[in-house]
Specification:
By secondary structure, the protein is an alpha/beta fold. It has 10 helices and 14 strands. The protein binds uridine-5'-diphosphate-4-deoxy-4-fluoro-alpha-D-galactose.
Length: about 325
């Protein structure tokens, strides 16, 4: 019998790519999503339960309708800047919502979860590349909400025999290499989609000098002054989730584990703009503005632990390849 996976937040960017990966791997999938940030059409033909994690009644309706072997939880608000301006939204959705989810899982005896955590739990790195053993002192509310859940999962595993794997993503990027799905956010705040949207704007005949693309600060202590990030392709993230699920199914002694999902290389905002210029062949202009609240200067990780324990290594590793999957998708080329 096919294993059944409940994907919370399966209409969002990473969740919807995961739905495809799970189907490709032969799992039966159900999506739970409140569609506040996701898109119903990203779910495809998979059953979609429209519901909100902040509502225990919505969760009851979902869990009572079918048996699940494992939950994957992607349904977080994930804008650093928004979390600084509206922390209540983040604590309500990411913390209270997830605790409601864990309560429903206990009630319906589902004890395996793969949780989307973040490198934002580390805060300003003291040692780069960041390993899982690095101190976790988040510098924004978003990172704090993710860390609170990691700690709850540790306690739930000790007390209730919960099995969990938390995956600390670095900067998710790119689109399905087969062109079936792409990165979509509303509003869009992420660097690569915004730079490529600017390239598309110019390609369709608009004046490059009328750009609205912003670079948030060139006064960080990095080589070129802009922030450095570790971009990891969404298809590689999905593969890691499949390996994590297999590990939870195969080994009942796995209690609570944490893995970085990183590429290991850092790229500055100006590096991203330059690679996008090369891939698209378009002149990409920008406005230099002041720093955005909550942005650490450098976030680069090592995924050696995931390689050793899960047997995972990123396969789409150059920034050019990552950018190319997104460019093909927004240009409508398969
Ligand atoms: N940036 C710009 N201009 C923009 C958008 C972004 O200069 O218009 C800069 C940001 O300041 C940052 C870098 O580009 O230095 C990357 O920004 P993103 O918004 O693409 O990504 P973040 O690093 O802020 O955040 C993302 C996810 C978080 C996750 C984090 C981990 O949104 O959920 O990666 O690094 F926690």
């Amino acid at each position: 019998m096919k294993k059944r996976v409940l994907v919370i937040g399966g209409a969002g960017y990473i969740g919807s790519h995961m739905v495809l990966a799970l189907q490709d791997a032969g799992y039966a999938v159900v999506v739970f999503d409140n569609l506040s940030r996701g898109f119903a059409d990203a779910v495809g033909a998979v059953p979609l339960v429209e519901g909100d994690l902040r509502s225990p009644a919505n969760l009851d309706a979902c869990f009572s309708a079918g048996r699940f072997d494992l939950v994957m939880h992607f349904a977080a608000l994930a804008y650093v800047g928004e979390s600084v301006a509206h922390p209540e939204l983040y604590y309500q959705n990411n913390v209270i919502g997830t605790l409601n989810l864990l309560a429903a899982m206990r009630k319906y005896r589902v004890n395996r979860i793969v949780f989307s955590s973040s490198c934002a739990t580390y805060g300003e790195p003291e040692i780069v590349p960041i390993a899982e053993s690095h101190s976790q002192r988040p510098i924004n509310p978003y990172g704090r909400t993710k860390l609170i859940i990691e700690e709850a999962l540790r306690d739930y595993s000790a007390a209730y025999a919960f099995q969990s794997i938390s995956l600390r993503y670095f900067n998710a990027a790119g689109c399905d290499p087969k062109g079936r799905l792409g990165e979509r956010h509303d509003p869009e705040t992420h660097l690569i989609p915004l730079v490529l949207a600017e390239a598309l704007r110019v390609r369709t005949g608009n004046a490059p000098e009328k750009t609205t693309l912003k670079v948030f600060g060139d006064d960080f202590s990095t080589q070129d002054g802009s922030c450095v990030r570790d971009y990891i392709h969404v298809a590689d993230l999905c593969r890691a989730h499949l390996l994590a699920a297999e590990r939870l199914f195969a080994d009942k002694s796995v209690g609570c584990e944490f893995f970085n999902l990183a590429n290991g290389s850092g790229f500055s905002v100006f590096d991203v703009i330059n690679v996008c210029r090369e891939i698209t062949g378009q002149p990409i202009n920008y406005q230099l503005v002041s720093r955005r609240a909550g942005d650490p200067a450098v976030l680069v990780g090592t995924a050696d632990k995931a390689a050793e324990v899960l047997g995972w290594k990123p396969e789409i590793i150059t920034l050019a390849e990552i950018v190319e999957t997104h460019w093909r998708w927004i240009c409508g080329d398969k």
